Every structure is written in structure tokens, then in C-alpha cells.
């Protein structure tokens, strides 16, 4: 179950939720990039990857679900 999928389908509500998450992620990366003391974190990078994968999964159409 994907917490971003509203009613189990990638409809307008799901797209809005994903858009909100992606906007947050963009803002967070911009803030990190503008910080004076930036150190890389493997865990943060992995977490960002998981969030992006969840967003992509939330937007998968019904006919794609049958092929996976």
C-alpha cells in the first residue's frame, strides 16, 4: 500500500499529494545546497531515493500494475 495513492488509483488527489512531496523535496535539496557546511550523508541520499521511488510508484497507472 502506498500512502500517497488516494483510493488506490493515481487520480488527481494522488497527483496533488505527489506534487506536494516533490515540492518539499526540491525545497529541502535547495536548502541543503545553500548551507555553508554541507557534508554528504549516505543515509539521507538513500532516504531521498526511497521517497522518489514511492512518488513514481504512486503515479503508476492501473494497466502498469498488471505488468509488474
- What is the end-to-end distance? 15 Å
Q: Which strand-content bin applies to the residues?
A: under 5%
Low-confidence stretches: none
- Helix count, DSSP H or I runs of 4 or more residues: 3
Rg is: 15 Å
How many separate domains?
1
* Largest sheet entry: none
- The best one-word shape is elongated
Number of strands: 0
Mean pLDDT, as a whole number?
75
Order of helices and strands: HHH
Specify the structural class.
mainly alpha
Indicate the percent of residues in helices.
Answer: 55-70%
Describe this structure in words.
With 68 residues, this protein is mostly helical. The protein has one domain (12-62). It has helices spanning 12-34, 42-58, 62-66. Helix 1 runs antiparallel to helix 2 (42-58). The chain is elongated, with a radius of gyration of 15 Å.
Features:
mainly alpha, 68 residues, 3 helices
Layout of helices and strands:
Blueprint: H1 12-34, H2 42-58, H3 62-66
What's the quick description here?
The chain has about 70 residues and is mainly alpha-helical. The protein has helices at about 10-35, 40-60, 60-65. About 5% of the residues are buried.
Amino acid at each position: 500500500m502506498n500512502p500517497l495513492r488516494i483510493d488506490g488509483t493515481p487520480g488527481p488527489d494522488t497527483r496533488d499529494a505527489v506534487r506536494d512531496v516533490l515540492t518539499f523535496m526540491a525545497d529541502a535539496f535547495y536548502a541543503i545546497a545553500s548551507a555553508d557546511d554541507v557534508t554528504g550523508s549516505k543515509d539521507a541520499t538513500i532516504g531521498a531515493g526511497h521517497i522518489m521511488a514511492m512518488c513514481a510508484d504512486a503515479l503508476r497507472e492501473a494497466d502498469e500494475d498488471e505488468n509488474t
